[in-house]
Design brief:
alpha/beta; six-stranded antiparallel sheet; 457 residues
């Protein structure tokens, strides 16, 4: 009855058991307890063991830390989970296994936002921002259904033109928080403020920006988007700014982002690979130690490049190029001005379905996406960008082909240390050469995720 009570409380369903081999310890009395952003898995073993839990949405792609000492009573907390999401898990202890599923609780009201290094947090747990401009009615519902969790208000984007920051008039879906452009304590949205968009492009100096308190004081975030002109491959925006000014801009925000839009703004003159390169420069030079994000193009916007089209494959590749470059948040620019009126939700054909897949993948992998960042060595002239993450002893590699041509390249990952790589969602593995090298092929705009499991106890 006790197990049944826990199953009902936490929406868990155990589906396996321990190995029957006499030499293998028995796993017994497995229980789970769910919160909105974490799950506690407890169990007992017949002899002292050190265990860990593999878990994930569908597949077991993530790992808890290995318990530090052998014991017969075990409790492992899985952190930074997504609310209202079902996770599979597998307990592994000295060759014995037990499997199950658990569903996290809904997001509570009244979130307190903050930052923890390069991570955005809500009530102390990871919050991976997926942002659009403010949406109304059917487009708000469509955005929330895709997994967008943050709307930002900028001039003229509110649903009520007389008082655009009166979000009660057309409230966002329950799963979506709001950034306001009313720069007063009382005017903050539920998640905080969106500072004036691209202030460098408007000739606004850092001193002229609203001077707002930092997130630890308020539980509200200060989001700032810059133009791409901090990036070394772009010319300075004008003679009033030098690139050190971007450090001063970043100092006034909790979360810093930018846009590049290689297709619809640069008509292909800027390579997609610059999405990765610019993100790396923002993360390492101008906003080190802070969460960063990037806006991704989803449609034709102002129609400046009619001969080129944003495709679902490009949207997916740009998203993962930004994340590989260090982004711990993503914005999707869904607006256009190609008709007689401004359109809040104007996506290129096939992009909405792709966003559903891409955002679902972000949610599933979120605990590792903002984990310890590592460099991956690739040939200097390749179209493929890559970086690594380390979480609880497991090593992950994110690799993206930024080109419309196929590629096959070698990688060097020093932390690999001879471990076999599983290619996520592709039912194949790669054994490294000389401990730290491996090679793989990419179709145009293809993304690969690799994981080397944490070493066994």
């Amino acid at each position: 009855m006790r197990l049944l009570a826990v199953v009902l409380m936490a929406s868990a369903a155990l589906t396996g058991g321990a190995s029957a081999a006499r030499s293998t310890p028995q796993i017994e009395n497995v229980t789970v307890e769910a919160a909105d952003a974490s799950v506690t898995v407890t169990w007992q073993t017949s002899v002292p063991t050190r265990g860990r839990v593999a878990y994930g949405v569908g597949d077991l792609d993530l790992y808890s830390a290995l318990e530090s000492i052998p014991a017969t009573t075990h409790a492992v907390v899985l952190h930074d989970l997504t609310a209202s999401t079902t996770y599979a898990f597998e307990i592994v202890a000295a060759g014995a296994t037990a499997t199950g599923t658990v569903t996290t609780n809904a997001t509570p009201a009244g979130l307190r936002f903050g930052v923890d290094g390069t991570r955005v947090t809500a009530n102390g747990s990871l919050f991976f921002p997926v942002v659009t401009y403010y949406q109304c009615g059917t487009s708000a519902a469509a955005a929330a259904a895709l997994g967008v969790n943050l709307f930002m208000e900028a001039p003229y984007t509110g649903c009520v033109t007389i008082n655009p920051n009166d979000f009660s008039a057309d409230p966002p879906p329950p799963s979506v928080s709001v950034l306001s452009d009313d720069y007063t304590d009382r005017g903050a949205g539920g998640a905080g403020w969106y500072l004036p968009d691209e202030p460098d492009g408007w000739g606004i100096t850092p001193e002229q920006l609203p001077q707002l308190p930092a997130a630890p004081q308020t539980g509200k975030l200060r989001f700032l988007s810059l133009s791409q002109h901090f990036y070394s491959a772009q010319a300075p925006i004008n003679d009033r700014f030098d690139r050190n000014d971007y450090k001063r801009f970043a100092a006034l925000a909790d979360v810093v982002g930018f846009d590049m839009y290689p297709i619809v703004k640069f008509c292909g003159r800027v390579p997609l690979l610059d999405v990765f390169r610019a993100q790396r420069e923002l993360m390492t030079i101008y906003a080190p130690g802070k969460p960063t994000f990037q806006w991704i193009e989803t449609g034709e916007m102002t129609g400046e490049c009619p001969s080129m089209q944003v495709t679902p494959q490009i949207v997916n590749a740009e998203t993962w190029l930004a994340i590989a470059g260090g982004a711990c948040g993503i914005g999707y620019f869904t607006n256009s001005w190609t008709g007689t009126l401004w359109n809040r939700w104007d996506l290129a054909p096939g992009v909405e379905a792709q966003l559903a897949r891409t955002i679902a993948q972000i949610r599933a992998l979120a605990p590792m996406l903002c984990a310890t960042y590592g460099d991956v060595t690739v040939p200097w002239d390749t179209s493929v960008a890559a970086s690594s993450r380390t979480l609880n002893g497991a090593l992950y590699v994110i690799a993206v082909n930024s080109s419309d041509r196929p590629a096959r390249i070698p990688f060097r990952v020093d932390a690999l240390a001879g471990r076999t790589l599983e290619v996520l969602d592709e039912s194949r593995t790669i054994k490294p050469a000389k401990q730290v090298y491996f090679r793989d092929s990419f179709a145009p705009y293809q993304v690969h995720f690799y994981v080397a499991a944490a070493p066994a106890a």
